[in-house]
Amino acid sequence: MFRVLPEPFDVANGLLTPSMKLRRDEIVRRYALEIDAMYQSRSRPRRTQEEASGWDDSDNVFR
Hints:
- It contains three helices and no strands.
- The chain is an all-alpha fold.
- The chain has a domain at 1-44.
């Protein structure tokens, strides 16, 4: 999952150092809501392989 942010990471907005390294603490502080939202959307229960493929035990010819 990804999000498109409204501004680029730049030295002027404080998200990059002068040597173009990420200021991770500032990024996490500024975009905490977006980061949390991405993890929330991943916390939904995943479907099993059988559910995803439509596999039914009654169709199992290898029993």
